Backbone:
């Protein structure tokens, strides 16, 4: 069977961020709690004319510069901050990207896990029809109550991946380990704009699920802890991954030194520290960070991935980085996007946080505020109007 996996991968985040020092100062909290305690520096905030659709289309746009979009058989859109209960956000993206009308589109949800489900489903579809490609997009805005413990772990971002046979970035192994359990660690009822979270409990369940998914993985796969050179974790905040990886190394009675354990994940954390939690996109933005921020050649290396979605579903899977992957990355574009973002002061952050949400069908024109390729230009008669720049 042909290898299947990630052929191209790109991410996008908004042009605004709040430095967590600014948040700490407004709250009267020690900034070190955020910079050191949870390991986060900045959190992305969507502009007035930005949402999961515009971020998703902007993340996916670079993938098609030299790609025949007519070969995309399916677009899988993973999100937990969708804009409609019925219509898939992916259909707007399908039009904005000019995908062919024979391409099916569907939205998937299971908290931060859904992008991994989408990737596995995409691999299965491509294995069946190796001449086709599947576009997987994960796009989310992480929003918590003001002055809640979760506030500093907000963020936003989207990742787009082209899943193909003979991929040029990552060959994904078929063997996975799963763990599913009905728990209430984090959820968002339909009538709420912000998530409800039992923060400490959620970190405990994350670690328990890691162990259970890993043990299930070791039953399915021949790989052990020592076969994996680097690890990517779901990143609600970077300290969570550090704790998780130490936990996994203890579970496996690894004899690596603490610095070696840290080095297995360090490069995957850079982008998350600057963006914040991007829910379903976070694991794969961490993978891009590993590929783009690391100085060593990862070609031929085995990578372990831990995907966690509250509620909860967890999955451990693995893949091999393809030799020569460096030439297919969007490293310069990603780094210049992050460098050209604008810092918000606390008052500007509150204005963006409280962006009005027209709910009675009134017509609203939204001024240009974002800088990506696509924007939300207005809402009228309950219809969202997206345009390209
Ligand atoms: P908290 O309870 O306010 O923080 O919020 P804390 O008091 O536990 O402090 C955090 C750390 O900072 C601690 O370190 C402190 O010691 C340290 P630890 O004991 O953990 O090693 N600290 C300091 N360090 C240096 N200088 C200081 C200082 N002060 C304190 N001055 C909490 C933490 C995680 C609860 C909060 O951020 C939260 O509720 N976040 C949202 C939930 C979350 O992210 N959960 C993660 C697991 S669940 C998940 O990943 C799924 C999710 O992405 C959703 C989905 O699936 O869709 C969330």
Residues:
């Amino acid at each position: 069977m042909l290898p299947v996996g990630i052929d191209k991968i790109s991410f996008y985040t908004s042009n605004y961020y709040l430095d967590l020092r600014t948040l700490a100062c407004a709250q009267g909290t020690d900034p070190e709690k955020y910079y050191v305690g949870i390991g986060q520096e900045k959190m992305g905030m969507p502009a007035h004319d930005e949402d999961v659709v515009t971020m998703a289309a902007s993340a996916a746009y670079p993938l098609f510069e030299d790609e025949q979009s007519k070969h995309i058989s399916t677009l899988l859109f993973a999100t937990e901050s969708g804009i409609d209960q019925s219509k898939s956000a992916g259909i707007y993206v399908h039009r904005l990207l000019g995908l062919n009308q024979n391409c099916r589109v569907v939205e998937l949800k299971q908290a931060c896990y859904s992008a991994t489900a989408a990737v596995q489903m995409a691999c299965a579809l491509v294995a069946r029809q190796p001449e086709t490609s599947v576009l997987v997009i994960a796009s989310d805005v992480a929003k918590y109550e003001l002055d809640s413990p979760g506030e500093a772990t907000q963020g936003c971002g989207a990742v787009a991946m082209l899943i193909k046979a003979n991929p040029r970035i990552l060959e994904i192994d078929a063997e996975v380990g799963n763990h599913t359990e009905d728990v209430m660690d984090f959820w968002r009822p339909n009538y709420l704009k912000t998530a409800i979270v039992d923060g400490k409990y959620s970190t405990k369940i994350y670690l328990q699920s890691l162990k259970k998914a890993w043990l299930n993985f070791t039953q399915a796969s021949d790989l052990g802890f020592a076969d994996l050179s680097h690890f990517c974790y779901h990143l609600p905040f970077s300290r969570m991954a550090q704790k998780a990886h130490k936990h996994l190394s203890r579970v496996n009675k690894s004899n690596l030194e603490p610095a070696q354990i840290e080095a297995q994940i360090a490069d995957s954390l850079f982008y998350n520290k600057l963006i914040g939690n991007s829910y379903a996109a976070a694991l794969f933005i961490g993978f891009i960070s590993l590929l783009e921020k690391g100085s060593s050649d990862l070609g031929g290396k085995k990578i372990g991935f831990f995907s966690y979605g509250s509620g909860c579903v967890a999955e451990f899977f693995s893949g091999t980085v393809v030799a020569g992957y460096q030439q297919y990355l969007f490293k310069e574009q990603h780094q210049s996007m992050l460098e050209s973002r604008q810092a918000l002061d606390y008052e500007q952050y509150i204005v963006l946080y409280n962006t009005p949400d027209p709910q009675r069908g009134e017509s609203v024109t939204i001024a240009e505020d974002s800088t990506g390729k696509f924007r939300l230009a207005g809402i009228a008669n309950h219809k969202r109007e997206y345009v390209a720049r």
